[in-house]
Amino acid sequence: MKELGLVSMMLMAELLDVIVNTLSKAAMKKGMNDFVFIMYSNAFAACLLLLLALFFYRKRTLPPLSCNTLGLFLVVGMLSCINQSIKFFGIGYSSPTLASALSDLVPAFTFILAVIFRMEKLDWKANSTLAKSIGTVVSIAGALLLSLYKGQVIINNNPPFKLFPQKLVSSMQFDWVFGALLLAAHSCFLSINYILLTRIVREYPAELVVVLSRIALTSILSVPAALISVKDLKALRLGFNMELIAIGCSAIFVLSFRGVIHIWIMGKRGPVYVAMFKPLEIVFAVILGVTFLGDSLYIGSVIGAAIIVVGFYAVIWGKSQEKVEEDCTVCSSESYDNEVPLLQNKRTGE
Questions:
Q1: Where would you tag: which of 103, 112, 224, 240 has the fewest CB atoms within 10 A of its CB?
Q2: What is the pLDDT along the chain (350 residues), one digit of tens a residue?
Q3: Helix 207-229, helix 67-93: angle, nearest 10
Q4: Domain residues of the chain, as ranges?
Q5: How wide is the angle at C-alpha 218 spanned by C-alphas 213 and 223, nearest 5°?
Q6: DSSP 3-state assignment of 302?
């Protein structure tokens, strides 16, 4: 039941990320500056998390902060600022669907880094390692199939209600190559962030403070870039329009809610567990595209989504089997320790 709750929270977090990607793309097409979006969304999220942290820790004592952890905070803040900039530039040059597709590189990058930093154990004789490794490869293969192969049309969709005009999302000409390179770099930096954040939260188990520090640093670091990138300071003004909606949704649902969920689950299950939910983003992107954006549904999307789900469940099973194997190892060692004195007593009696 506990595992089902973790999976549900992660699914909700990834769905919200896809929705916010789509909203931010729409806002950018209306002229919103990328750096201004990053500055305001992180500033709003920092204010929200500050209020939550003051309330949550009003009667709790925070763990001691070491110089090493403080240095990691600064590194993660700088990486987050760079990573968010790369992501929104990539979405601006391409599309939210491509962003979701290339996020499927995150599990591979994270798995390799986790093995290098000994956050994941590789024991090829264990079922858990085989399941996690095969599931990761299968999920990435399914995402690539979904992204690169269309096939025959299953549903030629033209819904009466669309979240955005069709010309805003589907008929624009994007620089796909440059956008893809930026989004691939985003996946690599995101994997590094996962590794560093997991190490931080295990040394400093105060999830709200960790997320607040990262977001506050990102907001501060993005101010100079936002001021330099705008030609007129009037561009910093916010009105009640698509820009404000996109900034608000990003601050509340992605930076705050998803950020806290990711940090909390990383501390319990590790970075690979969180990264393995990334391939599901492309599935959500296809569903939203068919439902709200007027995209057609192709057979390649259905087959790719089915393969992703198979790989995803393989990894989840592998993580659960990992705990079973650890419990069996502990029980075996305890039973061995209990048997030794009996044997010694028997020999003494003889």
A1: 240
A2: 577 888 888 889 888 888 887 788 777 777 778 888 889 999 999 999 999 999 998 888 888 888 988 999 999 999 998 988 888 788 777 776 677 777 777 877 888 888 888 887 777 778 878 887 888 788 778 777 766 677 777 766 654 444 444 444 443 444 667 877 888 888 889 999 999 999 999 889 898 999 999 999 999 998 988 888 887 777 778 777 788 888 999 999 989 999 999 999 998 888 888 887 887 777 787 777 777 656 667 787 778 778 877 887 787 787 777 766 666 655 555 554 555 554 454 444 44
A3: 50
A4: 2-322
A5: 130
A6: helix
